[in-house]
Amino acid sequence: MREKCCRQIWFFKVLFFLCCVLQFLDYTVSSAVEEDNTGKVFVYGRAAVGTIDEDFICATLDWWPPEKCDYGTCSWDHASILNLDLNNIIFQNAIKAFAPLKIRIGGTLQDLVIYETPDQKQPCVPFTQNSSIIFGYTQGCLPMHRWGELNAFFSKTGAKIIFGLNALSGRSINPKGEAVGAWDSTNAESFIRYTAQSNYTVDGWELGNELCGGGVGTRVAANQYAIDTINLRNVVNRVYKNVSPMPLVIGPGGFFEDAWFSEYLKKAGNSLNATTHHIYDLGPGVDEHLIEKILNPSYLDQEANTFRSLKNVIKKSSTKAVSWVGESGGAYNSGRNLVSNAFVYSFWYLDQLGMASVYDTKTYCRQSLIGGNYGLLNTTNFTPNPDYYSALIWRKLMGRKALFTSFSGTKKIRSYAHCARQSKGITVLLMNLDNTTTVLAKVELNNTFSLRHTKHVKSYKRATSQLSWDSDGEVQREEYHLTAKDGNLHSQTMLLNGNALQVNSMGDIPPIEPIHINSTEPITIAPYSIVFVHMPSVVVPACA
Ligand SMILES: *[C@@H]1O[C@H](CO)[C@@H](O)[C@H](O)[C@H]1NC(C)=O
Ligand SMILES: *[C@@H]1O[C@H](CO)[C@@H](O)[C@H](O)[C@H]1NC(C)=O
Ligand SMILES: *[C@@H]1O[C@H](CO)[C@@H](O)[C@H](O)[C@H]1NC(C)=O
Ligand SMILES: *[C@@H]1O[C@H](CO)[C@@H](O)[C@H](O)[C@H]1NC(C)=O
Ligand SMILES: *[C@@H]1O[C@H](CO)[C@@H](O)[C@H](O)[C@H]1NC(C)=O
Ligand SMILES: *[C@@H]1O[C@H](CO)[C@@H](O)[C@H](O)[C@H]1NC(C)=O
Ligand SMILES: *[C@@H]1O[C@H](CO)[C@@H](O)[C@H](O)[C@H]1NC(C)=O
């Protein structure tokens, strides 16, 4: 026993030595690459890997009252559905700029909301705090006059609404913390009927918030949730019998768990149009190391596991439902001030948009449009935070088809590409997570996929082809370089090609203008910068 152990130790010593040698070699090689500072973006252009909705960009509005605080900070102010200033001109312009922006109305308190419909007998009063009950609040109510104001606002700003319904209605919570019993759809049905009769357009009705899987606060079993979803489908079919297009039916609006989602999607079948999952992959907002996570490529990569698993579950279930990210705020419990509302968050946010697209996510709802520390808009004065502009530039440049993209050179570059929105070309998104190295990148088309089914493995050089436009001196491309003001990652001001993005005194959203670069030049990606490159003349089969 002992001898075996020592022999093992000896063996490991040799292994350790070999590792050191290899690591040294690896180190010399990679530092040589770094000194070189160049890299290649490979874009697979034969076919799209994922397809996103025309209105992929979505943001949420929540119910939290001003009393909502986390870790001693109260970051919601008047950002609730119930008290937002709908007359604010910046707010209106910010939504209009997306033409259209999808807005998902929901959040924790949605499962405590009653709707002031004619048949509703309970008084229509706001939420009040009570720490001894679920979610810490009494039930609140949506007055129909407020619903009317909201719909006038949505119609005026061109927002498309996804409304999250109270899915706890009619259930009771057992001693194990499970919500049991069937969903009582009575109040929801009269609210949906009232909405349809008032000619308010709702694009989707979503059932519940974070009640799936292990749940947050409480949970509902997958089998019951499927029954309730079919019930909602029947309600929608009844109410919108003569209306076209019929709103979508969406669920469950919670965290992905393989077994729960598998059962739910199998049983809810085609009653569902979209399945929504939530993402808070950065952990709690109180974490002082959020920035280190955001700037760590391996950390960012982890979320791909969820996207991949969900994609497989959908495939296996034979549902027609597509996948949406229904709510994603990065850091939970309202995010973190000067991180979630600062330049650095765009590395996380744009990486999420890119990754979600690759896994065929149709819509991505950011928590939040306004409210908490993760708002796209400043909670007190409605001015856009850096992520607002990141979303807007995405909206302007990234088309529906996501292309498989990889980067060789350094792991600190994140790379994504889509068919361009405004041309037959492509748009490449590159992010430099490194604080000191400027990277020079060339785009090459990777045609490896086309060789996948042939027996001959062609050489690397043959499999990739230099872009033909590269030698064409006439061709230019458009670049959008995003950096933090004063190089400060915590800055709430983002620079586009060196100029601050700011609303003017009229409350107008600034135009998003590129610089034009000769296509023979490599793409320069400065430290801690984000670059969108629109290449109108790079035409690949996937985008033709
Ligand atoms: C809070 O809720 C509990 C349980 O329903 C109730 O007994 C208590 O009176 C409530 N407290 C307040 C301040 O309303
Ligand atoms: C809704 O639209 C229909 C058809 O255009 C119209 O007859 C009805 O009066 C409208 N209802 C309201 C409340 O505006
Ligand atoms: C939503 O699902 C229903 C029921 O399967 C289907 O009839 C409808 O066409 C779907 N809507 C969209 C936009 O796919
Ligand atoms: C909103 O903007 C003001 C003015 O720039 C700033 O002082 C404040 O910190 C911002 N609030 C939040 C929550 O970011
Ligand atoms: C860059 O980041 C590294 C690793 O986080 C750190 O050690 C170094 O001090 C940083 N350099 C600058 C110039 O900020
Ligand atoms: C080209 O794309 C294929 C397909 O995924 C990938 O496996 C390969 O690594 C890519 N080649 C390069 C050089 O990036
Ligand atoms: C682009 O660069 C090439 C090579 O340096 C040069 O010959 C050509 O004139 C440039 N084209 C434009 C439009 O500046």
Automatic annotation (TrEMBL):
Keyword Signal (UniProt): yes
Signal peptide start-end: 1-30
Superkingdom as given in the UniProt entry: Eukaryota
UniProt xrefs under InterPro entries: GH (IPR017853), Glyco_hydro_79 (IPR005199)
Main location: membrane
Topology of the protein relative to the lipid bilayer: Peripheral membrane protein
GO cellular component: extracellular region; lysosomal membrane; plant-type cell wall
Lineage, top ranks: Eukaryota, Viridiplantae, Streptophyta, Embryophyta, Tracheophyta
Function: Endoglycosidase which is a cell surface and extracellular matrix-degrading enzyme. Cleaves heparan sulfate proteoglycans (HSPGs) into heparan sulfate side chains and core proteoglycans.
Keyword set, alphabetical order: Glycoprotein, Hydrolase, Lysosome, Membrane, Secreted, Signal
Subcellular location: Lysosome membrane; Secreted
GO molecular function: beta-glucuronidase activity
Protein name per Swiss-Prot or TrEMBL: Beta-glucuronidase C-terminal domain-containing protein
Source species of the chain: Capsella rubella
Family (UniProt): Belongs to the glycosyl hydrolase 79 family.
